Amino acid sequence: MDRVWYVSYGSNMRSARFDCYLAGGTPEGAARGYPGCRDGSPPVAVRGLRVPGGVYFATWSPVWGGGRAFLDTDLPGEAAVRAYLITAEQFADVAEQEMYREPGPSLDLAAVIAAGRVRRGPGRYETLLHLGDFDGFPALTFTAPWRAGDVEHTRPSGPYLVMLREGLREAHGWSTAEAAEYLAARTDFWSAEEIAELRVTPQPGDPDENHPTPR
Q1: pTM of the predicted model as reported, rounded to 2 decimal places
Q2: Contact 195, 183 (CB under 8 A)
Q3: Residue 151 domain-assigned?
């Protein structure tokens, strides 16, 4: 198995952020950088998908200052995601970086493809999921070992929601309002109007360098 779809349902839906996981760097709005994969090559294909389950926000991210997105495949409905066709090695390196570890260890992806779900450890993104096959390649992601109903839901930060909102727009061609409505339906802490009004974080050197401000 050479290539897999890495399925993102969180901030990596925005391509500029995912580029930092591949090639290294600090995403806009984030408090830390990433070393990048051993192979920093870009994906050979990118597509928007929907997968069974739902997204919710829990724990607290020191990178974003708020709740993180998780996927629970037992929730009703579908989750809007973005899939990147990358190498199996790159997927392993992305998984390590999500746990704030250095890339390097390989993963037994054959096990998760066969079982559908494999818990590597207790960490928040150490449970691997096989979400099906698309165009002949397995679609894989990682999430928490717990279920949505087993953990307290927490408030995602404004910068984090901007990253998800813009990633959804890139992946699915949605309007700002459509992406905001999708996200608001997955958290009780923000309204669709508030999420839609959050501003994209300007790049250094732009006239206004204020971060998006939660209401």
Answers
A1: 0.88
A2: yes
A3: yes
